Amino acid sequence: MRHVPAPDPQRTLRIITANVLIKNRDAASLLAICREQDPDIILLAEPDDWWIEQCRALEKSHRFTIIQPQSNTYGLAIYEGDQSLRWLDDFFVLRSGAFFWKTPGETRWGAASRFLQR
Known about the structure:
The protein is of the alpha+beta class. The chain has a domain at 13-86. The chain is 18% helix and 25% strand.
């Protein structure tokens, strides 16, 4: 992990993304990094029910969530800590694993499928 200082600390958005690897069971390391770095947004790829349960503590500091555990490696969990960001208002995940988003001020939705093969 490399920290790059922002020109204006008031406009910094701190994001942690992690592919937890569904078979991995070392949640303690991820939680320690999240505590240490204190990100605004945490995005987890491949969480299953076990991972979501282990990450319940994240919901205390990141109250706005989208949680879609799946046992087939297509799970997704997003934790947002600062309600002023409000970007999760325009984001949702379907049970199929596809997800959609709309950038504030935009009228069109972006989409991505769980099937990223070409």
